[in-house]
Structure formats: structure tokens, C-alpha cells
Amino acid sequence: MIDVENLTKKFDDVTAVDGVTFHVDEGEVFGFLGPNGAGKTTTVRMLSCLISKTSGDARIAGYDIDNTADSLKIRKIIGLVPDNVGLYEELSAYKNLDFYGKLYECNKTQRKENIEHFLRMLGLWDKRDVAAGAFSKGMKQKIAIARALIHEPKILFLDEPTVNLDPESSKMVREFILELKKENKTIFLNTHNLDEAQKICDKIGILNTKLMATGSPKELEESVWGSKTVIQLEQVNEMILDALDKLSLNSIINDDNKLTIDVVNPEKENPAIVAAIVRAGGHVQYVTELSPTLEDVYLKFVR
Amino acid sequence: MKLWKSWVIASKDFSVFRKKKSIIYSVIIIPLLMSIILPFIISSSGLKSGSITIGEFTALLNAFSFFFVILAASLTTVIASYSLLGEKVEKSIEPLLATPTTDEEILLGKSFAAFLPPIASIYVGLVIFMVLIDKLTYSSLGYFYYPNWNIAIIILLVAPLAAILSVELGVILSSRVNDVRAAQQLGQLVIIPFFGIYILGEIGYISLGINSMLLISAMLLVIDVILFYISTITFRREEIITKWK
Ligand SMILES: Nc1ncnc2c1ncn2[C@@H]1O[C@H](COP(=O)(O)OP(=O)(O)OP(=O)(O)O)[C@@H](O)[C@H]1O
Ligand SMILES: [Mg+2]
Fold it and tell me: Pick from A186, A210, A220, A267: which is nearest to A20 by CA?
């Protein structure tokens, strides 16, 4: 659905996006993670035909972002929730949406039905005639999302949709995104919220001008290190450490009677480790697995 | 080019203007006041008492009708800067550009929005002005002074061309300025040359008759064409997204 090959954008002497390659399939939620200035917004702007690329290639549903005729077709099948909501503050929620419905070439019935559908879904139908300027940030963000969906696009680009929102509104927006995924929409989500990316994305790309890594949250986590086994003992002594040394393990850290051991194949190695400790007279209290979080992945690639 | 899309954009702007008191006041009230005040100044100018000649009197009238050209230029910059900078300040230009609408359709829509309200209001003002002048001067002149060729050229050529100049200036200014007020104040500089012409006409240095009006129209047309090219260059999506800060 979104095919990006070596995409690059330079602003004069600043390279904002450098040779990025990735693919997003239909119905997938793709999360673009990266620090401030990583080039997330720039990428979304190129893909939604707002700015031109410097080099490389990108196709949206087969249409070329660099072709003027195609760019109109692309804009018809995508929806964009930009980082600034940009509503017309003097106009009501309904009028804001109706205006965009017209520009997206929806007919009257379609506009009426979709505006009602989305405003109800987002809990704002009762406030449809209130001027957008009177809404809270969260409500404005919701209207901006409804605005991007008014023409029932196949692909939705969201640029940090939960930034500035309270936890409850953020949760609502996330649930709404998952709802859209059920309708088989392809979703491209810019965020620097790792938790959010982990919760809702099928695939994640870590961007820092260059694309540092892509994969499912699980794949990315596993790529950082294998696994670690954590064993809490009543008392760690020399005998136990000697016994473990003989198992030729990669690394053992002893911290307050808690052993953190790097393992390559936990299912095979863990029983041998525990048996060795027990034979050396150790009292095992807990055995747990320590796996890397998305945060570890992110920090590894972004630092 | 889908003209109806430009019209959708212009209509949206009209709804926004309706919520802005300052815009309503300047666009409706000022031409209305002019159309009433100017005839009364003229009626007290002493034509009846014979203290000025018919020649002086018509020069005065021509100068006053030129006042509406100044208004056309000045009111249009107010609206043009509001219409474009409003989008820039509220950051609504990005979602607008993300719709399947071309840069030309947006620019034309914005131009309609800035051009039509002042010109409509000035036309109404001019009609009132002409009717009042005729009423006030028929007894002394023995004929209806208006309508005449002079005012026809103002209505059909000079005023619209001056308004178009202001629209284009507004487009160019919006790309450089970040603040509606600043743009409106800078935009007001456009009236200086028009005011100069008005003063020269008023003191009798130049005649503001038919020939001068045609000459002014021709000059405006040339300036409009040049500014049109500059404004279409500044109004490109890439420029707007990356340079309009
Ligand atoms: N219009 C512009 N002109 C010049 N440089 C720009 C422009 N827009 C972005 N950049 C530069 O491109 C780089 C990427 O910016 P971008 O806004 O895409 O980052 P981002 O990942 O969206 O960051 P954030 O998380 O802060 O939104 C930055 O170094 C920025 O300074
Ligand atoms: Mg950004």
C-alpha cells in the first residue's frame, strides 16, 4: 500500500530524511518512531504530496508521489491528521467537516452521513454546532481525525495524534485507531510515545534521519539482545558462582543476591543453570525472564 | 481547474468573515459612510450660490468618485491579508493543501474571497453616491450628472483593477509576514499612489476625466499582470508548507 524506496529530502544543506526504505501493507498499522527532528513530519508531508522529494521513490497504492496527476489521486485516497490540528476556529465542528467533505468531493448524503457517523463515534455529535475555537485540545484533535476520514480514505496518516492529550483522551484516540484498523484501513502513525507504538502498531520503523530499524515490536525487541534470565537467591556465595562458571555462560551479574544471566536458548539453558545452583547448595526463590523493551530498542538506535 | 472548488473555499471564507465584526465594519460601514458624506460635502460646496463654476464642480466630483478607488484598494488588502494569513496563523493551510485541490484552485478561491465583498460593498456605495449627487445637484445643473462615462470607467475598470492589485499584494505579503495586523498595515501602503493621484486631481494639477481614468486603468492592468506572476510563484504548496512560518 505504501512503498518507499531510498526516499530522501534535503532542505538546502540540511538532510531531513536520508535514504529511507520501507513498505506498509494494506490494513497494517505502521508506527514511525523517532526523536524531535528525526524527519517524521517531513516523511509524512512527502507521502501526502505536500512537499516534493529530493530523490528516491515512493508509491501510495501504486501512484507515484512525484507525478502531478497521481498526486491528486493520492490525496483522494489518503487522510491526513497533521501535527497542528488547524481547524477554522470561528466555524462550528459541523461546518469544518462539511467544508472538507466538499473539497474531498463527497456528495451531500455522504457528507451528512459521515459527519454524523464520526461525530457520534467520537462523542461530539451533541456539540456539532459549537464553534471549533471553543473546544478543548482533545476535542479539536478528534475533529481533526474526523476531518481526515470524511471521504473514507484507504490510508490514514497521523502525525503525533496523542501529543498534548490527557491519558483518557489518548486512550480514546488509540482505541479509535484500532477500530479503524478493523475496517482494514492502512494507518501510518508518527509518534515518540513508545508505549503507544507498542500497543497499537503491527510494524515499527525507528527513524533518526536514516531508518535505523524496522520490524514488528517483538522482532525489534529480540534484535537488541537475546534473553536474560534473572534468578533471585536467598544468598549468593563463591560455590554457586564457581558452579555457574563451569557452564561457560556469557555474562553473569550479581546484584544483591540477584543473578542476571545472558542466555541464548533459555528453554535449554535455564534448567541446567537452576540445577547447578541447587547442587551448589543455593536456595532459589524466583526465576524470571528479562526481555528488552521497546525503549531499549529505541535508545539503542537513537543514541 | 474546478471552479466550484474555488467557490467552496471562498464561501467558507465568507462564513468566517461573517463572524468577524472588524471585517464587517470596515467592509460595509466605510463605503456606506463615504457614499453619504461625500455628496453632502459637495452640496455645501456652494454650487447653488454660484461661488464655484460648473467646471470646478465636475473636477471636484471626479476627484470624489476616485475616492472609491482608494477604498477598493484599501479594503481589499484588509480582507486579503486576513483571508490568507488567517489560514497561516491557524495552521489550517496544511490540511487544506492535503485535500485533492490544486494550488490554483485555492489561490483563486482566496482571491474571490478577498475581491468580492469589498467590490460589492463599493458598488452599493457608488450607487448611493450617484443617486444622492443627482438629487442634490439636479436643480442647479438642470440635468442628471450621473451616470456618466467617467464613473462607468471607475466602476468597470479602475476599481476592480485596483482591488485585484490589492489581492495580489496580499498574497505576496502573506508569504513574508506572520501577523495579520502587520500585513494589513503594510498592505495599506498600496493606497499611497492612489491617494497621490487623488490629491493631484483635487488641486487641479491633473484632470481625473475619462482620459486619465483610461490611462490609470492601463497602468493598473500592467501592474496586475506582473504581480499575478509573482503571486503565483509565492503561492506554491512547497513554498507555503516550508517557507510560510
Ligand atoms: N521547512 C523547513 N526548512 C528547513 N528545514 C526543515 C524544514 N522542515 C523541517 N526541517 C528540518 O528537517 C529535520 C526534520 O524535521 P521534521 O519536522 O520532519 O522532524 P520530526 O521528526 O517531525 O520532529 P518532531 O518530533 O519535532 O515533530 C529537522 O532537522 C528540521 O530542522
Ligand atoms: Mg513532527
Answer: A210
